[in-house]
Amino acid sequence: MKVLCILYDDPKGGMPSEYPLNSIPKLEKYPDGMTLPNPESIDFTPGELLGCVSGELGLRKFLEDNGHTLVVTSDKDGDNCTADKELLDADIVISQPFWPYYLTRERIEKAKNLKMAITAGIGSDHVDLQAAMDNNVDVVEVTYCNSISVSEHQVMMILALVRDYHNQYAIVRSGGWNIADAVSRSYDVEGMHIGTVAAGRIGLSVLRKMKPFDVNLHYFDRHRLPKSVESELNLTFHESVESMVAVCDVVTVNCPLHPETEDLFNENLISKMKKGAYLVNTARGKICNRDAVAQALESGQLSGYAGDVWFPQPAPNDHVWRNMPNHGMTPHTSGTSLSAQARYAAGTREILECFFDNRPIRTPYLIVQNGQLAGMGAHSYSEGSATEGSEEAAEYKK
Ligand code: NDP
Question: Which of 131, 179, 257, 369 could lock 125 by a disulfide, CB 3.0 to 4.6 Å apart?
Answer without folding.
Answer: 257
